[in-house]
Amino acid sequence: MELGWLVCGTAVLLLLHVLMELSPAVNFALRIGFYCVLCLVSSALAAAACLLVNGGRTVKNMRIIKAVVKTFKYFFGLRFEVKGLENFEVEGPAIIVSNHQSILDMMGLMEILPDNCVQVGKKELMYTGTVGLIIYLGGVIFINRKSTSSAKMVMAEVAKTMANENLKVWVYPEGTRNCTGDLLPFKKGAFHLAVQAQVPVIPVVYSSFTTFYNPKTKLFTSGKIKVEVLPPIETKGLTSDDVTDLTDRCFCTMRETLFRLSGRPSEAKDSS
Ligand SMILES: CCCCCCCCCCCCCCC(=O)SCCNC(=O)CCNC(=O)[C@H](O)C(C)(C)COP(=O)(O)OP(=O)(O)OC[C@H]1O[C@@H](n2cnc3c(N)ncnc32)[C@H](O)[C@@H]1OP(=O)(O)O
Ligand SMILES: CCCCCCCC/C=C\CCCCCCCC(=O)OC[C@@H](O)COP(=O)(O)O
């Protein structure tokens, strides 16, 4: 009986291995499927730990989430090379902005997440089962992207609470995932928030995933991700009139860095 199970198990594993070798699409689906299952299962376990240790929704739970998610990279053969972490050491609150390529970004986020830092996320994430629960418990700020006025109201509220709670807020200014190896034009919410709260903007750039991850070509292998935390950009004394300029400056610096980290330095100069 036990031998039968062993033979069946081995046969299934062999079949999966052969399918993965033969078809990149199967390989991609299995690896992404595994990532989702890992997120769902880990979120359930982490949620229990968060409730036991901290009792409810608080940014302190991010430490637990970070510890869990930091182990994920080993399952997928991903390596991070991080530079500039000292740039997070600003006095008081700050807005962190970074490029957003994929759902895999959660690994890069947790690799370097500073203490007392929450993210701005789309409200739909609340309905992703245990992942939604853990995101809620971590204190993520939910916005309705379909209603500019309500998103602005939430952001204005955040500007007020940041100082009181000494919070850093992580925003993906592209507003959606983009795995083209370039940046989408930046939305201005993060920069309005920084100016309203008079806090610095800290740009973070992750190198392009395209060499190891591409949903269009069904590529998902192991790989190295370079991460650079750039020096803070001060906003003291800036007003809403300066937001467009601040957004553009940040965009140019991050695009240049993205191309440099991804080994495409000439393109940054050509198309900026
Ligand atoms: C255990 C394992 C599990 C893993 C768990 C991991 C946990 C971590 C969770 C991490 C969650 C990550 C989630 C990532 C996301 O969901 S990304 C998507 C959501 N985020 C964003 O969209 C942020 C970026 N978007 C913005 O900043 C937008 O500006 C927004 C505020 C949302 C408004 O967008 P939109 O309606 O599209 O309007 P516009 O941007 O076009 O702006 C219109 C005009 O309004 C002006 N504006 C914008 N914001 C403000 C503001 N706050 N105050 C004043 N004015 C504002 C803007 O300038 C435009 O006017 P002009 O054109 O300049 O005249
Ligand atoms: C009971 C409901 C069950 C639902 C199950 C859903 C399964 C989802 C499980 C795991 C997915 C892991 C997601 C980790 C969090 C990813 C955050 C993220 O990257 O969100 C994307 C968002 O920034 C932008 O969204 P769009 O690019 O605009 O789209």
Automatic annotation (TrEMBL):
<dbReference type="InterPro" id="IPR004552">
    <property type="entry name" value="AGP_acyltrans"/>
</dbReference>
<comment type="pathway">
    <text>Phospholipid metabolism; CDP-diacylglycerol biosynthesis; CDP-diacylglycerol from sn-glycerol 3-phosphate: step 2/3.</text>
</comment>
<feature type="transmembrane region" description="Helical">
    <location>
        <begin position="30"/>
        <end position="53"/>
    </location>
</feature>
<dbReference type="GO" id="GO:0006654">
    <property type="term" value="P:phosphatidic acid biosynthetic process"/>
</dbReference>
<keyword id="KW-0444">Lipid biosynthesis</keyword>
<feature type="transmembrane region" description="Helical">
    <location>
        <begin position="125"/>
        <end position="143"/>
    </location>
</feature>
<comment type="function">
    <text>Converts 1-acyl-sn-glycerol-3-phosphate (lysophosphatidic acid or LPA) into 1,2-diacyl-sn-glycerol-3-phosphate (phosphatidic acid or PA) by incorporating an acyl moiety at the sn-2 position of the glycerol backbone.</text>
</comment>
<keyword id="KW-0472">Membrane</keyword>
<dbReference type="GO" id="GO:0016020">
    <property type="term" value="C:membrane"/>
</dbReference>
<keyword id="KW-0812">Transmembrane</keyword>
<dbReference type="GO" id="GO:0005783">
    <property type="term" value="C:endoplasmic reticulum"/>
</dbReference>
<feature type="domain" description="Phospholipid/glycerol acyltransferase">
    <location>
        <begin position="94"/>
        <end position="209"/>
    </location>
</feature>
<keyword id="KW-1133">Transmembrane helix</keyword>
<dbReference type="GO" id="GO:0003841">
    <property type="term" value="F:1-acylglycerol-3-phosphate O-acyltransferase activity"/>
</dbReference>
<dbReference type="Pfam" id="PF01553">
    <property type="entry name" value="Acyltransferase"/>
</dbReference>
<keyword id="KW-0594">Phospholipid biosynthesis</keyword>
<comment type="similarity">
    <text>Belongs to the 1-acyl-sn-glycerol-3-phosphate acyltransferase family.</text>
</comment>
<keyword id="KW-0443">Lipid metabolism</keyword>
<keyword id="KW-1208">Phospholipid metabolism</keyword>
<keyword id="KW-0808">Transferase</keyword>
<protein>
    <recommendedName>
        <fullName>1-acyl-sn-glycerol-3-phosphate acyltransferase</fullName>
        <ecNumber>2.3.1.51</ecNumber>
    </recommendedName>
</protein>
<dbReference type="InterPro" id="IPR002123">
    <property type="entry name" value="Plipid/glycerol_acylTrfase"/>
</dbReference>
<keyword id="KW-0012">Acyltransferase</keyword>
